[in-house]
């Protein structure tokens, strides 16, 4: 087996940079509790105020830094004056803590968390890149799923997704289907909506109710479902449903995949649909989530993204798509409506730094029949459709194109439909019938003119690479991930602005 050394060095270099930042954070954290720091820091020791240099004796027989002299407790018979003086000192030290050290500690912890998140997001990509080069892939994946260290590092869900991708259609089961359950939703649309479920338990008269999130998947159009009996889907649809349920069940435990906690699905033959049921994310208010599309359209002051958050959300979405592709799956319905945000339970404000991907399509890469809702839609979602579609089988390239449109929306803070309407002003044009190559050219033109002003040149280059078929013929390669990481994900980082 041949391994590209430069690729290994690329992943190792990125991990080294993150680990170095973690080391610096730990040094800062340690220093806050270091006795020498407590003695010599002007933040906590008033005798060091105004000190520009600190000199230590260099005699080998003596400790270069004497032991810290920490304040001792005063005895109870101290005079009122002494107690007052000590109380005043404590108040001053508390003020110093509040003004200086507390902020430093909070900043240190924040940096540590941020670098840890980067590392946990990078490890699955590196893992997938290496597994793709192993001859006996199944044994390697099985070993990973049983490895304790891999579990701690968050690599097990990705190994399971790759394992699941290797299964035959006959291996898919209905283990994720809930039979004795009634679903109540506030909407009959495909989009994710708040609702409730009633679980019926044997021997219990009353049903257990729970607030959940529900996503409806309707049977494919009758002309494509000609083998199905009334109120009964065909075999392909059943396989697709079981496969998607398995995908969502596994991905729920991978934080960087940005999927909701999947519970089960319910078959509703009378409505000719399946209801996919999800729980709410941790700390989220149990209410209707808000899509990225709706946030951009509303653009109220309290919901507008700050620049730093725009970069973070764009990078997280791209990384999630990249990890799914690395694990052998596609999303199939990427658009600004398939990215949602939740209100925080304690503050009831949107958690803008935590986007979630929803509305996954049925099929996995390069496979079989596709029942994408784009083929049935008459709304703006058609603008995310690659010019190849629906004539050609869905591939990763089509996901990447749709990702490019979403990244364009984030950069310009304007929906794809609004961009289309501006270009078609005064013309009698239909979103669903217009030449999609013309739409692509319009998006590319907007990206080249507008994005450098809003988000910088590197961000623009990432969007253009997504939109202009740069990666046609390469997305199925096992080495494509090494291209996607530096040319898309890394260019969406706010750090790229520093190199402009």
From TrEMBL:
Which parts of the sequence belong to the Protein kinase domain?
Answer: 186-488
Domain of life of the source: Eukaryota
Q: Extract the InterPro entries matched here.
A: DUF7580 (IPR056002), HeLo_dom (IPR029498), HeLo_sf (IPR038305), Kinase-like_dom_sf (IPR011009), Prot_kinase_dom (IPR000719)
Task: Give any GO molecular function from the UniProt entry.
Answer: ATP binding
Matching Pfam families, A to Z?
DUF7580, HeLo
What the entry lists under PANTHER family is as follows: HELO DOMAIN-CONTAINING PROTEIN-RELATED, PRION-INHIBITION AND PROPAGATION HELO DOMAIN-CONTAINING PROTEIN
Protein name as annotated: Protein kinase domain-containing protein
Which source organism does the UniProt entry give? Botrytis galanthina
